[in-house]
Amino acid sequence: MSSALQILLDHAERERDALLADLARAEQQLLQFRAQAVQLLEFRADYRRRDPTADGRSAPVAALRAHQDFMQRLQQAMDQQHLQESAAQARLAQLHRGLLPLELRVASVRKLMERRGQADRTAGDRREQRSADESALQRHGQSHPNALPSAL
């Protein structure tokens, strides 16, 4: 039975470890998305400072249109990046929710193995005590052949 429990424990630990690895990858991905968001915000701020009409300067219409078009594309990229970051946060939360049941399963199997081991030790102790009692009774019977056997 203990080998079956060991197999069950190994399986539960592999499942938990796989989820922990997924969790680490998801956390890393979320950090990357957050770093990208910071970079995009900094780039947008820098590009805004390059506005051709800053400080009341006049600029050709083509330059203004190009600047506005690029700012729109940059905002679309930021919106897309925000969606990816939100999806990564949701995935991370989902993985975190899945971790507790796996941790509980591993702990439960370990506890069951511990209880079975204790039960096996207790049964062994009882067998050993019975054997010692029987040996003592036999020795007593051999040294006192006319004695009546007593009930245990």
Question: Could you explain the architecture of this structure?
Answer:
The chain is mostly helical and 152 residues long. The protein has one domain (2-53, 61-124): Helix Hairpins. It contains 2 helices and no strands. The longest helix has 83 residues, at 61-143. It is rod-shaped, with a radius of gyration of 37 Å. The mean pLDDT is 89.
What's the helical proportion of residues?
Answer: over 70%
CATH class: Mainly Alpha
User: Could you please say which CATH topology applies here?
Assistant: Helix Hairpins
Q: Main beta sheet: strand number and arrangement? A: none
Mean pLDDT, rounded to whole units? 89
Distance between the termini: 32 Å
